[in-house]
Structures are given as structure tokens and as C-alpha cells.
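hey can u check if this looks right to u? its 236 residues, i copy pasted from the old doc so theres a chance i mangled smth
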Amino acid sequence: MHNLRKVYAVDDDKVVALARINLEIPRGQICCIFGESGSGKSTLLNQMAGMEKPTKGSVRIGRDNISTMSERELAVFRQRHIGFVFQSYNLLPHLTAVENVAMPLMFSGVGKAEREAKASKMLKRVGLGKRLKHFPSQMSGGQQQRVGIARAFIAHPEVVFADEPTGNLDSKTKVEVMTMMRTFARHYRQTLVLVTHDEHMAAYADRVVTLLDGHIVSDTANRSSDFATADSGHPQ
């Protein structure tokens, strides 16, 4: 992110949600964007994922400037390179767990039998081997979030964005979910960007970037992390 600025018009006023953000996240790093409600962290995630256009500045993922892409180009780019984990799960209610997880592979042109076989394997990895044919309404919140994690990681995207992924979960399930995401990100050497206001969840990151009123007020490494810094300086 280079000189990133986002301003919203509210009635006759202008609200500065992000003020000249400069931030580089190396490939394979687990980075937490931390802040209280209204700090600008969700706006920043939307900018990083290309969900909103910046007022000024740019966002690059690798060599691609996503800030200049059309909506069609962004949709294709996200399908190929980005995964999402949401607080509200965002599962399609009329699809089974297998079908929800298999969806990213459908966009990649993988045949039905192959993608459902891979989805079944992924669901077993997150402990849902007995829930393959269950619909979201037949699963608990923690189980739905495991489906969401499986869906986000199944196509091995270079970057996964997780927006308050533990916000609706109990403390035990929070730990399980964060452990799963960190394990997958490490295994596939993916960049994981976690947005949260929960200090306990921030502890799972290699690095914590704290926002306040649209400004970065601190950027610290988690010294207990096992992130290999050899690739720092080479952004995703």
C-alpha cells in the first residue's frame, strides 16, 4: 500500500477513514491489522482486497496494481489469487459443506468429481469428515467457520484475508480456528492478513499493525513467532 487514502462523503462533511497509509507485507507473513471499532481496519482490508477504490494512492499484490483494475478484472484476480474468511461465515445456505468448499475450484475450471473429492479431503483436515453433506443450518457456528476456512484455503491462494474470523465464536473454538488458519498458511507459504480487535487473536500473527483514526500508530513484530524473515522485502 502506497500513500493510501480513503475519504467518505457523509452529508456535507468528509470523513477520513484512512490517512496516507504506507505498508508492505512480505510473502508468507501472517500480519494482524489491529484496532478498535472505527479505527479504519475494515476499510483497510477492503482496500487490500480490492473491494473498494482508494481516494488516493495504490494497492499492489505482487506486480499487479489492483487499484486500477475494473470490477471484472478484480473478480477474476480474486478468484485466482485471494481467499476470504468472514466473521459471518458467508456460506451459501442451499449448498452442502462439500459444495461450499468446492466452489473456488469451480471458478478454476476443475471438474465436479475432482473438486468435490478435494473438498472432502479438505473438510476432513478441518475435522468435518462426518459433515460433508450437511447444510450450514445443520452446523454450529464453529463448524461453519471451519467450512469457511476450508473454502478459503482449498485453491491455495497466495493471499488470504480474514475479517474478524473469530468474532462469533467461543474461546475454545477461537483457538482451534486460529490454529487451523496459521497451520494452513505456514504449510502452503501463504500470506495471511487478519483483521481483529481481539488481542488474544493478534498473538497468532508474526506482526501486528495497529490503527487509530485511520493512521498506523504502531507496527511491531511478534517475537514469539516462527516467521522466517528471509523473504522480507519481497512483497506478495
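Residues 228-236 have pLDDT under 50 and may be disordered.
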